[in-house]
């Protein structure tokens, strides 16, 4: 959800097997809730003609702040006519543009070598994204630095290896001993049957099981 009110919510929905992002609206009246489709953004139209979007592997929204608009971020897997062309991109766009919003692209395969992804998480400060990547398996921190005029210019600042076949990433606050709380990115992995907690700024492992 990127807009919440007492009687109306707006949000975005994605699919693992589609290049379309659905803008939807939830209207709440008493005990009844109505879902309506408002618009559709086709991500494939922003990539090269030879490339096909396989699906969206992660979706997040950063709320508006100052002059920066509410911005959606998605990790998109794509392929083409040959297997070696499989790749993954980070795309972003202002949500107020709806289905006609201009989409910007950061080619993650070129930046990290990864050809697949499993999710993303926005840091609590809203200054970076943590991307869970595959082949090779790892976490990449993408800084959301503004360009002149306030436009975003994301770049990969750090990438570290993680456990094998990671499947999910969640960012939240966890209790510390003897007291207090800290932000941690928690990653689960299929092949290693492992759970790792990372410090989100420097991607250092702070706990493992």
Structure description:
With 209 residues, the protein is mostly beta strands. It has 1 helix and 16 strands. 2% of the residues lie in helices and 56% in strands. It starts with a strand and ends with a strand. The chain is globular. A 4-stranded antiparallel β-sheet has the order 1-2-3-4, with no helix packed on it. Strands 5-6-7-8 form a 4-stranded antiparallel β-sheet. The mean pLDDT is 90.
Order of helices and strands, N to C? EEEEEEEEHEEEEEEEE
Poorly predicted runs of 5 or more residues = none
Helix content: under 10%
The Cα radius of gyration reads 18 Å
The amount of beta strand, in percent, is: over 45%
Tell me about the biggest sheet? 4 strands, antiparallel
Briefly note the structural class of the backbone: mainly beta
Question: What sort of overall outline do the alpha carbons produce when their principal axes are compared?
Answer: globular
Nearest-integer average pLDDT: 90
Distance between the termini: 32 Å
Query: Order of strands across the biggest sheet?
Result: 1-2-3-4
Secondary structure tally: strands: 16
Number of helices: 1
Walk me through the topology:
Layout (H helix, E strand, L loop, with lengths): L2 E2 L3 E6 L6 E10 L2 E11 L9 E11 L8 E9 L7 E8 L9 E4 H5 L3 E7 L5 E7 L3 E6 L11 E7 L4 E10 L5 E9 L4 E6 L4 E5 L1
Antiparallel strand pairs: 1-2, 2-3, 3-4, 5-6, 6-7, 7-8, 9-10, 10-11, 11-12, 13-14, 14-15, 15-16
């Amino acid at each position: 959800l990127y807009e919440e009110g007492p009687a109306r919510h707006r949000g975005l929905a994605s699919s693992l097997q589609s290049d379309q992002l659905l803008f939807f609206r939830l209207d709440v009246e008493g005990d009844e809730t109505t879902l309506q489709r408002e618009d559709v953004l086709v991500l494939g139209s922003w990539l090269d003609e030879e490339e096909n979007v396989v699906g969206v592997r992660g979706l997040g929204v950063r709320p508006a702040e100052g002059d920066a608009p509410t911005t959606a971020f998605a990790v998109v897997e794509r392929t083409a006519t040959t297997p070696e062309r499989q790749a993954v991109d980070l795309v972003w766009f202002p949500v107020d543009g709806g289905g006609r919003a201009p989409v910007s692209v950061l080619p993650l395969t070129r930046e990290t070598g990864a050809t697949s992804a499993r999710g993303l998480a926005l840091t609590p400060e809203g200054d970076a994204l943590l991307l869970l990547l595959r082949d090779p398996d790892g976490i990449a921190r993408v800084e959301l630095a503004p360009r002149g005029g306030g436009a975003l210019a994301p770049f990969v600042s750090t990438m570290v290896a993680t456990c094998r076949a990671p499947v999910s990433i969640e960012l939240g606050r966890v209790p510390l001993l003897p007291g207090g709380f800290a932000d941690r990115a928690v990653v689960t992995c299929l092949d290693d049957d492992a759970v790792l907690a990372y410090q989100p700024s420097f991607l250092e492992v702070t706990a493992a099981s």
